[in-house]
Design a protein that fits this description.
The protein has seven helices and no strands. By secondary structure, it is mostly helical. The longest helix has 54 residues. GO terms for molecular function: endopeptidase activator activity.
Length: 268
C-alpha cells in the first residue's frame, strides 16, 4: 500500500521532473538558434562584410585628396569695432573692471562679444562629415552586435572545468577575449564621434564669442580634417577586424567546437 505522504512525494517528484524538462527544452531552443546564427556569421557574413567594407574604402567619399573640399563655412561675421566717443569713458570702464577684479567680484577673463542670434538662425554642422558619419555608424553598431553573438556562442561551447587537457579550452578563452577586445574598440569609435561634436561645438561657441580671433576658425578646420582622416581609419579598422576574426575562428574551428577529444573524455 502507498501511504498519503509517499504518494504526495512521488507526485511532487514527477511534477518537478516535468517542470525541469520543460524549462530545459525552452532554454535549448534559443541556444540552437544562437549556434546556427553564429556559425552563419563566421562562415558567410564576416567574409561578405569585409569585402563590402573594402569596397567602401575605395569610394570617392573616402578618397578626397584635397581636404579643403570637406571644409565647412562658418557664417559668423566679424563685428565692427566699437569707437568710444570720449576717451575718458573708456578709461573709467577699465578702472571699474580693474576694481571688480581686485575685489574678487569679477572674473579674470577677457569679455567676449555677446551673441543674441546667429545670422542664419542656427550654426550648422559640417554636413559633409555628418553624412559620412551617418554611413560609418551603422557599420560600427553591426560589428558590435555580431561580435556579441559570436562571443556568446563560443562561451556556450566552453566545457565544464576539469584538470588536464585544457588546450582546446584555452583556445576558446582566447577567442572570447579577442571578440571582447574588438567589441570594446568598436564601442570606442562611437565615443570618438560624440567627442568630435562636443569639441567642435565648443570651438564654434568660442568663434561666436571672439569673432576677431582667427585661430579659433582655423582650429575648427583642423579638427574637421582630422575627423575625416579618422573616419577613414575607422572603416579600415572595421574591415581588418572582420578579417582577423574570420581568420582566427576558421583556423581554430575544430578546437572551438570540440575543445576536448573523445579519447580524453573517456579517461574521466
Amino acid at each position: 500500500t502507498i501511504t498519503g505522504n509517499s504518494k504526495k512525494k512521488r507526485l511532487g517528484t514527477g511534477w518537478g521532473n516535468k517542470v525541469s524538462r520543460y524549462y530545459s527544452f525552452e532554454c535549448h531552443i534559443p541556444t540552437i538558434l544562437l549556434v546556427s546564427q553564429a556559425e552563419n556569421l563566421v562562415a558567410s557574413f564576416f567574409p561578405n562584410k569585409l569585402l563590402e567594407l573594402d569596397h567602401f574604402l575605395k569610394d570617392p567619399i573616402l578618397n578626397i585628396c584635397d581636404l579643403k573640399e570637406i571644409h565647412s563655412e562658418i557664417n559668423l561675421t566679424v563685428p565692427d569695432p566699437i569707437l568710444l566717443s570720449n576717451l575718458h569713458d573708456g578709461l573709467e570702464a577699465q578702472s571699474a573692471k580693474k576694481r571688480k577684479m581686485e575685489d574678487g567680484t569679477g572674473e579674470d577673463k577677457v569679455a567676449g562679444t555677446k551673441v543674441f542670434i546667429m545670422p542664419s538662425g542656427m550654426m550648422k554642422s559640417n554636413t559633409k562629415l555628418v553624412d559620412l558619419i551617418e554611413k560609418v555608424k551603422p557599420e560600427i553598431r553591426t560589428l558590435i552586435e555580431k561580435c556579441n553573438t559570436v562571443k556568446m556562442w563560443v562561451q556556450l561551447l566552453i566545457p565544464r572545468i576539469e584538470d588536464g587537457n585544457n588546450f582546446g579550452v584555452s583556445i576558446q578563452e582566447e577567442t572570447v577575449a579577442e571578440l571582447r577586445t574588438v567589441e570594446g574598440e568598436a564601442a570606442s569609435y562611437l565615443d570618438q564621434i560624440s567627442g568630435y561634436y562636443i569639441t567642435r561645438a565648443k570651438l564654434v561657441s568660442k568663434i561666436a564669442k571672439y569673432p576677431h580671433v582667427e585661430d579659433y576658425r582655423r582650429t575648427v578646420t583642423e579638427i574637421d580634417e582630422k575627423k575625416y582622416i579618422s573616419l577613414k581609419v575607422i572603416v579600415s579598422e572595421l574591415r581588418n577586424q572582420y578579417v582577423t576574426l574570420h581568420d582566427m575562428i576558421l583556423k581554430n574551428i575544430d578546437k572551438i567546437k570540440k575543445p576536448r577529444s573523445s579519447n580524453a573524455e573517456a579517461l574521466y
